[in-house]
Design a protein that fits this description.
Blueprint: H1 4-8, H2 12-39
Pfam families: DUF6126
Protein name: DUF6126 family protein
InterPro entries: DUF6126
Length: 41
């Protein structure tokens, strides 16, 4: 499973975690923006 070719690249778990963090960050930012947009009315 751990061949030298895979060790040079990023592990798959790191990419999955990075995508999850980016998605959650964008959802949180959208929620904050929605609160300000609704509160401004």
């Amino acid at each position: 499973m751990s061949n030298p070719d895979m060790e040079e690249k990023f592990p798959r778990a790191l990419w999955v975690r990075l995508i999850i963090y980016i998605a959650v960050g964008h959802l949180f930012a959208a929620f904050i923006y929605l609160l300000f947009a609704v509160g401004a009315k």
